[in-house]
Amino acid sequence: MKRERSEQRERILQAAIIVAEKKGYQHFTRNAVAQEADISGSLVQFHFHTIQLLKDAVLAEAVVTENLRIIAQAALVKGGSIGISPELKQKAINHVITESG
Question: Cα angle vertex 70, ends 31, 61, to 5°?
Fold first, then answer.
């Protein structure tokens, strides 16, 4: 049972990362994540309680995997208070600038 919950939580997190990459860190919703994970929105809420907790988990995973696009978006949305090193934040922003230019 506990393993199944952990697997569901990981599935939701991975779906949230996909949605954040498609729609942007600030624009993803519980329903969009639920649809991507092919589960109910209430199950997303059960595992993450609020959309902000889910966004925090997405950002934490982005830092671990160096998903520079999501890190840059979070830095722009949240300003200086995203809890990552200034070097990684600058690397992410430079990546997005280079990618779009």
Answer: 80
